[in-house]
Structure formats: C-alpha cells, structure tokens
Automatic annotation (TrEMBL):
Pfam families recorded: Glyco_hydro_2 (PF00703), Glyco_hydro_2_C (PF02836), Glyco_hydro_2_N (PF02837)
Domain (Glycoside hydrolase family 2 immunoglobulin-like beta-sandwich) ranges: 163-259
Gene Ontology biological-process entries: carbohydrate metabolic process
Phylogenetic classification of the source organism: Bacteria, Bacillati, Bacillota, Bacilli, Bacillales
Keywords from the UniProt entry: Glycosidase, Hydrolase
Protein name: Beta-galactosidase
C-alpha cells in the first residue's frame, strides 16, 4: 500500500511489493550472480531467522516488466540505511537516510523485462554522521514501499499546497514543479481543481533538461476547516497538458486540510483562535514481529491505542515517519511533531565533516515530501544534541533557517535536555524540554516543570 488515496489517474504506477531475491554481500562490486534467499519488500531483513542480528551489506533484486517503451521513475519510500540503485546493471542513484523517500528517473527504457538491484547498507561507518548506534534499533532492508511509474518526458515532479487564511477567507498557495528531461523545449498548460473550484495556472515553456516552478494563489469558498474533531480533507488535482495538441500527459493528486498554526501569547493556536493542548506520545517505528516496516493494520492499531488513552498528538521520534502513518493522522485528526533524523549527538559528533550536508539533505527531503500533511503542526530538529555550546548553536541556527525558508506556515522546535545551560531557545517558536522524573532522576515532576518554565526565560 503506497498511500491511503490515489495520486494518479493518467500516470501509470505499479507497486513493487512482494518477494525480492536477496543476498548478503561483503562488498558492493561486483553485484552477486546468485541470490540464495527471498525476502518480502517492504520488510526488515532481521525478521528472517538467518539475519536476526545482521549488520552489513546486502543486495535485493527484482525483475520488472515495462509495458511500453519510454521513461520510468523509481520511487523508494525508505531504504535502511544507505542505498545504491542499479537498473540493468548500471548504477542510477545513491541515497543516504532510511526515513525519507527518494526517486530516480530512467529515460529510454525499452519494452520488456528489466532488472532492478538495490544494494543496502545498514553498517555504522565513518562516512555516516547520523546513522550511529542509538538507544533504539536501526534495521536493515527496503523497509517502505517501492513504486515504478511510467512518466512522460515532461512531467510533474511535485506539488506544494499551503493554506492561507486572511480576514476569514481561505486561499491555497499552489506551487507545481515541472521537469523536462527531453532534448527539446516543450510548452505545457497546467490545470487544477480543488473542492468545487477549477483553475488554470498558465502555460509555460520548459527548456531541455530543466525544471520550472509555477505558483498561484487560489481563493476557495465555503471551506470546512481541518480540526482534530473534524479533520476535513480536500483533494488537489493538477493536470499537465501538451500545448500543441491538448493531450493530457501527466497528473498528480495531493490532499490538503485548511488549517493554520500560530504561536501567540505563550500558546499554540489552531485556525487563529482555538488553543491547542498537546497530549500524546513519542513514537518509534518498531514492532517485535516486523521491526521498522510497520504494516497498515499495525499503524491503525497504534493510533487507535493512542486515541483510546486520550492522546491527540504524536512526535515522530527521532526521524520522519512513513507517509501511510501521516495520511492516517490527517484522516483521524492527530497532531504531529515531525522530527529530522539526528538525536543525542555530542559536539564532536556534530563536527563530523558530513554532518551539515547529511542533515541538510534529510531536512530538505522531510519538508518537501511531507509539507502537504495538515496533521503536521511543527517541524523539529536535533533531539538532545549540543545546543548548550556556541558551536552547536550555529548548527541549530543553520538548520532552523533552512527549514523556515522552505516552510513559513509551521512553527519550529527542538527537544532539549540541557536545562538551564540551553543556548538555543531564542531560535525557535516552541520551547520543548525532555525531562525524566521517575526514570533517570528522582525529581518531583511538578517542581521540575516549574523550574523548566524559568529556564526558558533565563
């Protein structure tokens, strides 16, 4: 299952779930000729009895049939932790980080059978600043769905939809990224619809091998606002039309909820008025029988248990979560603090030569892929890292500024355990403490909360 709603009617897509051939390997090259195992995708290889504690390299192989010659796009929703993707034996892309999706476009694919190989590495190695031993287990495998899409040479890369409320009227700021991988300039029209409103976003010339962005603000009448008690959702459909012949060549559907989040008068407000009291849980993607590859039924069970206990919120500690989980939070009215993949890092770890680059990539992919989810009410970074140092403060500042530049519609936060030594609270919209009375300490919870209120203003 890819998403809880269909994202395309024109673009042909195929989920590559099922059994893939599998082989542990000692080095990336050469790729194995023999595969002695079969493992389900998505899954974690630790669920197989022979690989309960395996940490290393492994290759997954899948034969795929292409019905029509042309361009394909492979999307991987999550590979833990580093992936190298081969198509017909040729390396096409690499990706670092288990918890964000990535794509690769492959042109000029002939009709017929082809081979996809993914080399997966879950080792703790020197060139990884974020994937390190933790107090939670990091699994190996293709842990989230894989999708094969047949795309035209000019196609919709992504859509961003930001709801805006002005003087009790609702608008939707729509941005569409259009990519042209052909050798020729192409002119396309962009058409859209949301609720009962249809709109044209204009025509645009897209130069060869380039990407353009179209933006438009759409007024929407009679909006039912998204709230936890009434999580109303709307589909935004974007269609790409060839200007020369009016052929519809691509489409994409996103889903939005009309809501705003503000932080005024020391409170979080929803839709400009209602104060939000967050009651919830930190949630890891981990389960004794499936590891980090959580099936739909168990995601639903998690959310039903949270709701049964009176919770209304989830923090995705300490990495971006599966889009199926976020889709369900949208539908069920949960509030989400989504967090990047970096936790408990000392200043020495934060000074790793690849730390800035790898964090920037994770932040970018987290926001770009999940920005349309109304359930996400805040972005978080760098859980319990060196925010008590001047050098650490510079890195917190960089990452918060990066995310704020991508999305001004949500507040920013991070969880601190530095108490009165904290140096970064002035950089965020929401001050957040991790406190452990009765767990790591014998402190009185009420007295500790009173102290925390003083720390944030000290």
């Amino acid at each position: 299952m890819i998403r809880t709603f269909d994202q395309h009617t024109i673009r042909q897509i195929k989920e590559l779930s099922g059994l893939w051939e599998f082989q542990p390997i000692k080095k990336v090259q050469p790729l194995p000729e023999e595969y002695n195992y079969q493992l389900p995708v998505p899954s974690c290889w630790e669920m197989h009895p022979d690989f309960l504690t395996y940490r290393g390299l492994a290759a997954f192989r899948k034969k795929v049939n292409i019905d029509q010659a042309g361009t394909i796009q492979l999307e991987f929703k999550g590979v833990s932790h580093t992936a190298i993707v081969y198509f017909d034996g040729v390396e096409k892309t690499t990706h670092y980080n288990a918890y964000t999706p990535f794509k690769v476009v492959i042109p000029n694919v002939s009709k017929g059978e082809h081979e996809v190989v993914v080399v997966v590495d879950n080792r703790f190695i020197e060139n990884s600043s974020l994937h390190i031993p933790n107090d939670y287990y990091t699994y190996g495998g293709i842990i989230r769905p894989v999708v094969l899409e047949e795309v035209s040479e000019v196609f919709i890369n992504r859509i961003e939809c930001i709801p805006i409320k002005e003087q009790d009227q609702w608008f939707l700021d729509v941005s569409v990224w259009i990519q042209n991988i052909s050798a020729y300039q192409r002119k396309v029209l962009v058409k859209g619809s949301v609720a009962s409103r249809t709109f044209d976003m204009d025509s645009v010339q897209v130069d060869p091998t380039r990407e353009v962005i179209l933006k438009s603000r759409i007024f929407i009448e009679n909006v039912v606002e998204w709230t936890p008690s009434q999580p109303t959702l709307y589909h935004v459909t974007i269609q790409l039309v060839e200007a020369d012949n009016d052929d519809m060549i691509d489409d994409q559907v996103e889903r939005v909820g009309f809501r705003t989040i503000t932080t005024e008068n020391e409170a979080i407000q929803l839709n400009g008025g209602e104060k939000v009291l967050i009651k919830g849980f930190n949630r890891h993607e981990d389960h004794p029988t499936v590891g980090a590859s959580i099936p739909f039924s168990l995601i639903v069970k998690d959310l039903e248990l949270i709701r049964d206990m009176g919770g209304n919120a989830i923090r995705t500690s300490h990495y971006p979560n599966d889009e199926l989980f976020l889709d369900l939070c949208d539908e069920m009215g949960f509030l989400v603090w989504e967090e990047n993949h970096a936790r408990g890092l000392s200043l020495e770890r934060m000074q790793h030569p690849l730390f800035r680059e790898q964090c920037e990539q994770v932040n970018k992919e987290m926001v770009e892929n999940h920005i349309n989810h109304p359930s996400i009410i805040m972005w978080g970074i760098l859980n319990e890292c060196a925010s008590n140092t001047e050098e650490g403060r510079e890195m917190y500042k960089e990452q918060l500024e990066q995310i704020r530049a991508m999305d001004q519609s949500r507040p920013l936060t991070f969880a601190s355990h530095q108490r009165d030594k904290e140096l970064c609270f002035d950089l965020v919209d929401i001050v957040s403490f991790n406190l452990y009375p009765g767990w790591y300490t014998d402190e009185n919870p009420s007295e500790l909360a009173d102290q925390a209120r003083r720390w944030q203003i000290s």
